[in-house]
Amino acid sequence: MAFPLKDWARSLKREIHALYLAGRDPRVPYAAKTVAALVAAYALSPIDLIPDFIPLLGYLDDIVIVPLGIWLAIRMIPPHLLDEHRRSAASAEGRPVSRTAAVVIIGVWLLALSSIGWLWLR
């Protein structure tokens, strides 16, 4: 017996991987590449913009930002290229991890914390 939620999660991972691949494809328009790369990097990053341990808000970014970003990126990528990247993602083993996105998110958190510290000391 298949679980619909498990199938949905698996297909979402494939979509994110396809967006990751599309973000690196020179045939994809620059705006679509930028959106796809940002969404894939954020979704694959081990660090969230809002940590999951914060009640309600922690999961809000995962529930809202990622699906909206995926939807937008999919709408911007030409269908024939997206199909090609979906096939590549389906046949690929493993999941890419975006270390660059992790560094950017850490940088945002450090900047926010240092700003709060500066305001507090002031």
UniProtKB/TrEMBL annotation:
Transmembrane segments annotated in the record for this chain: 97-121
Keyword Transmembrane helix: yes
Pfam families in UniProt: DUF1232 (PF06803)
Domain DUF1232: 32-68
Cited InterPro entries: DUF1232
Subcellular location: Endomembrane system
Keywords (A to Z) from UniProt: Membrane, Transmembrane, Transmembrane helix
Membrane topology note: Multi-pass membrane protein
GO cellular component terms, A-Z: endomembrane system
Major place of residence: membrane
UniProt-recorded name of the protein: DUF1232 domain-containing protein
Annotated organism of origin: Oricola cellulosilytica
